[in-house]
Amino acid sequence: MIGAGFPRTGTRSVKAALERLGFGPCYHMAEIGSNPDHVDRWLPAASGLPLDWDSVLDGYRSTQDWPASFFWREQVEVYPDAKVVLTVRDPHRWYVSMQALIATRRDVPPDLPETGAAVLRTMERLRPVLDLIGERDRWWQVAVAQRAHCGTAWCADWSNSAMMCT
């Protein structure tokens, strides 16, 4: 199972469901926080190099959330029999949620417990990959900001076109 949805679209819930249904373990952004060495699996992408998907996803049977969901097309090429799961969310709520998440990204506070500081340092190491994803997906973020007032009909149109982009 390959996740194709943006973060903040229920990917953690789908991860839990996939694992409960026997498609686990499921690779999710949370895995990087728990396994800082996984950053090295993703860094070649920031340089435009192809990823070795068997190495990147070693030990996992499914994916959800970034960074994996950004590369869903590449995964489909390597795993053509896999099913693709697209998670979506109301564009208004998604935009507010993403803005809140992005706004919380700051320097490591000096009084942060070491466990939390380690996670933030790991995410900082992943920044080249996240920046790559952000640049490529900026068109979608701009579209959401400009068209959020159009309501759920636009979201349904986007969902249908995203599902057909294979």
Question: Which helices and strands appear, and what pairs or packs with what?
Answer:
Blueprint: E1 2-3, H1 11-20, E2 26-27, H2 29-34, H3 39-46, H4 53-56, E3 62-63, H5 72-78, E4 84-85, H6 91-103, H7 114-147, H8 152-164
Parallel strand pairs: 1-4, 2-3
Helix pairs in contact: 3-7
Provide tags for this entry.
single chain, 166 residues, mainly alpha, Rossmann fold, two-stranded parallel ribbon, 8 helices, 57% helix, 5% strand, globular, disordered C terminus, P-loop_NTPase, transferase, Sulfotransferase family protein
Secondary-structure class: mainly alpha
Biggest sheet, open or closed, and with what strands and sense? 2 strands, parallel
**Percentage of β-strand residues:** under 5%
As for the CATH topology, it is Rossmann fold
Mean pLDDT across the residues is 80
The CATH C-level name is Alpha Beta
SSE succession: EHEHHHEHEHHH
Number of strands: 4
Radius of gyration: 16 Å
User: Any idea what the shape is?
Assistant: globular
Number of contiguous helices: 8
How far apart the termini lie comes to 15 Å
Uncertain residue ranges: 146-166
CATH superfamily: P-loop containing nucleotide triphosphate hydrolases
The residue fraction in helices comes out at 55-70%
CATH architectural category: 3-Layer(aba) Sandwich
**Total number of distinct structural domains:** 1
Assembly context of the chains: single chain
Pfam family, one: Sulfotransfer_4
EC number: 2.8.2.-
Keywords: Transferase
InterPro entries: P-loop_NTPase (IPR027417), Sulfotransfer_4 (IPR040632)
